[in-house]
């Protein structure tokens, strides 16, 4: 009786091997990927098996194409289907003959553990390669107006990057006159810039060097001009004034395009004053905002127009609302120690865009 059972099992294995052989042939001969139905779906539907079984048939059949010795052992009944499945997950052409002999004496559970061990080793090897391939590319467009950023990060760095940027993006407020096409993308971009440019606990940061005429800071330029970063990127006058609100300025005197002298650095907020300002303004002062991180000290009367660097002329704003004041024509009034009010630009002939210089002259940069 036992001998009969052995023969039947051998016949079953041989028939299964022929089934896998046919599946492997169909997988190569027919372009299933271009059709509406895949080979796996075809097998599941035609033979009333689960999709998992059909997927496993195709996977094992593909693996056996490179494992002739194991295929022969299975055809001869030396290996069972349950042994073959984990074996085809880690056996290679180099170990094909070895495992064709050794696997017959291994329990199914042992083979699955070995398959999982090889999978862990493979993943570690791939992750190490991913880390070696990490990269970040930055390229300005031809007009020098937009920086294109593209990068690849391995899993652990990518997960940390995504978590931090998405968490910061939840705090970003978009209050622009012309909302961006991709609001979430704009929030992620603002969040990334905030994280990169934030000072404080992170210590000193690289310096952004901007070359601009002094008249840009005072708002006396007759027409809009474009300042330049050290990289050659062009920056608008409004953006220069916004950047200069709480920046270290190094004056360079020029004549006929040549530097003839370098003056003092000035108007950076000293540490003792910054601590008082943070104590008084723990949140963004813009009505209804309340953001507490990545705030910027803003001179109500721009220091280039004679505004002092003291508590009576300073408020803290988030980057979004700081940009509204400098680049969207908004104005601020009131006393920082009591209440300040923010004024939306008026439409029509007297709109903020047409009154941009008069706002600066009136003391609202």
The computed structural class is: alpha+beta
Q: What's the tally of helices?
A: 14
User: What is the strand tally?
Assistant: 11
Question: What number is the mean pLDDT?
Answer: 78
Radius of gyration: 34 Å
Largest sheet: 3 strands, antiparallel
Number of domains: 3
Q: For the terminal residues, how far apart are their CA atoms?
A: 98 Å
- Low confidence ranges: 258-265, 349-365
| Assembly state | single chain
Strand line-up across the major sheet: 3-4-5
- Helical content stands at 40-55%
| Share in β-strands | 5-15%
Structure description:
This protein is an alpha+beta fold and 365 residues long. It has 3 domains: 2-131, no CATH class; 134-205, no CATH class; 207-361, no CATH class. The protein is built from 14 helices and 11 strands. The protein has helices at residues 2-29, 39-47, 51-64, 68-75, 81-90, 96-102, 108-132, 155-169, 183-197, 214-218, 237-243, 271-280, 319-327, 356-361; strands at 135-140, 147-152, 210-211, 226-229, 234-236, 249-255, 258-266, 296-299, 314-317, 331-334, 340-343. It has a 3-stranded antiparallel β-sheet with strand order 3-4-5. The protein has a two-stranded antiparallel ribbon with strand order 1-2. A two-stranded antiparallel sheet has the order 6-7. α11 (237-243) packs across α13 (319-327).
């Amino acid at each position: 009786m036992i001998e009969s059972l052995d023969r039947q099992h051998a016949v079953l294995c041989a028939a299964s091997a022929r089934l896998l052989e046919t599946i492997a042939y169909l997988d190569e001969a027919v372009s299933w990927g271009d059709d509406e139905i895949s080979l796996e779906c075809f097998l599941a539907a035609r033979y009333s098996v689960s999709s998992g079984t059909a997927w496993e048939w195709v996977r094992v059949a593909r693996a056996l194409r490179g494992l002739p010795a194991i295929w022969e052992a299975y055809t001869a009944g030396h290996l069972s289907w349950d042994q073959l499945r984990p074996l085809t997950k880690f056996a290679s052409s180099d170990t094909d003959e070895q495992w064709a002999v050794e696997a017959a004496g291994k329990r199914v559970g042992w083979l699955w553990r070995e398959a999982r061990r090889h999978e862990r080793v493979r993943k570690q090897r791939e992750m190490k390669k991913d880390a070696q391939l990490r990269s970040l590319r930055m390229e300005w467009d031809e007009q020098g107006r937009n920086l294109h950023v593209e990068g690849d990060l391995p899993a652990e760095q990518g997960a940390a990057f995504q978590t931090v940027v998405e968490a910061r993006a939840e705090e970003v407020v978009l209050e622009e006159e012309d909302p961006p096409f991709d609001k979430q993308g704009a929030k992620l971009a603002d969040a990334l810039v905030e994280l990169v440019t934030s000072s404080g606990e992170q210590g000193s940061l690289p310096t952004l060097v901007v070359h601009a005429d002094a008249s840009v800071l005072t708002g006396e330029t007759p027409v809009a001009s474009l300042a330049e970063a050290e990289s050659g990127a062009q920056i608008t006058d409004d953006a220069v004034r916004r950047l200069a609100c709480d920046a270290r300025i190094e004056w360079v005197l020029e004549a006929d395009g040549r530097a003839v002298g370098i003056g003092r650095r000035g108007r950076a907020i000293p540490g003792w004053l910054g601590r008082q300002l943070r104590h008084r303004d723990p949140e963004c002062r813009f009505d209804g905002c309340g953001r507490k991180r990545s705030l910027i000290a803003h001179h109500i009367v721009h220091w280039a127009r004679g505004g002092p660097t003291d508590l009576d002329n300073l408020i803290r704003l988030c980057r979004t609302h700081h940009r509204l004041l400098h680049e969207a024509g908004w104005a601020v009034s009131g006393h920082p120690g009591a209440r300040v009010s923010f004024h939306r630009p008026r439409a029509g002939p007297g709109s903020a865009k047409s009154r941009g210089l008069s706002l600066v002259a009136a003391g609202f940069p």
